[in-house]
Amino acid sequence: MNSSLRTVLEETVRNPGGITVLTGAGISAESGIPTFRGPEGYWTVGSAVYRPEEMATWAMFSRKPEEVWRWYLYRLGVCRRAEPNTGHRALVGMEHLLGERFTLITQNVDGLHLRAGNSRERTLEIHGNLNFMRCAVACDDAVYPIPDTVLPTREEEGLRLSALPRCPRCGALARPHVLLFDECYNEIHYHLDSALSAAAQTTLLIVVGTSGATNLPNQVARLVFQRGGVIVDVNPNTNPFAELARRNEQGFICQGTAAAVLPELLHVMAGAGGWSGS
């Protein structure tokens, strides 16, 4: 590890200030979940092939709710068979080490951070969570687990649904609890204000496996950058956050995978904080 980065990590743990981790599809890809915009994101309806930007919209859900649900339930089946990796577990360790100073902001909807052991209180799922649904006509703001009764079996995935999910409160059609392409971030479902508030108190931002294709993560990074916080980009590929780290006086680029780099960062931080991991 770069000696300068080691020093910054040690000093950041010892001093007050928030430490935020922002994760994207890269960390989940290491658990076998294909990236959203890869070839697996495409979906065929009859003879028509739809891109994710077409399927994951309120406009498509309004016209073809069964097709949108079939696609999301197929993805949910993939996510539920995946397991958290060492990168996920390292972030659990960071939360245990830092407590209320730690915030995890994730674009991933697979729920792997929570399954690994990060708390709901410190985890902001800014694009929602595929394991949940809510009323499509917004009879209230409640979010409900998707009942197993609507899940296709492994052999049937993506073929047909026995029933469309319904709102337990009013009986109307339910929708996946995910941010669609033609929707905007808000606080109640996607933690907009909470994410920006965390960024405003962040002295160290670790960006993991994200390409910078969505708006709120970029806002978070820019806010930390403008306040003079340290930015560490963990990604095997170049991306806008790496460029921001290059422009930062104390920015660092760790060109590697989350599963390889995050345990190393945790090891340094734990040593500075006197934490054994038990």
Quick rundown:
By secondary structure, this protein is of the alpha/beta class.
List keywords for this structure.
278 residues, alpha/beta, Rossmann fold, SIR2/SIRT2 'Small Domain', 2 domains, six-stranded parallel sheet, three-stranded antiparallel sheet
Tell me about this structure.
The chain is α/β, with parallel strands linked by helices and 278 residues long. It has two domains: 3-33 and 84-127 and 187-273, TPP-binding domain (Rossmann fold, 3-Layer(aba) Sandwich); 39-81 and 131-178, 2-Layer Sandwich (SIR2/SIRT2 'Small Domain'). It is built from twelve helices and eleven strands. It has helices at 3-14, 25-29, 52-55, 58-63, 65-81, 86-98, 112-116, 187-190, 192-200, 215-226, 240-247, 258-273; strands at residues 18-23, 43-45, 48-50, 102-106, 123-125, 128-135, 144-145, 174-178, 202-208, 230-234, 252-254. The strands form three sheets. It has a six-stranded parallel β-sheet with strand order 5-4-1-9-10-11, with helices on both faces. Strand 10 (230-234), helix 11 (240-247) and strand 11 (252-254) form a beta-alpha-beta unit. Helix 1 crosses helix 12 and helix 6 runs parallel beside helix 12. The chain is elongated. The two termini are 24 Å apart. The relative contact order is 0.19.
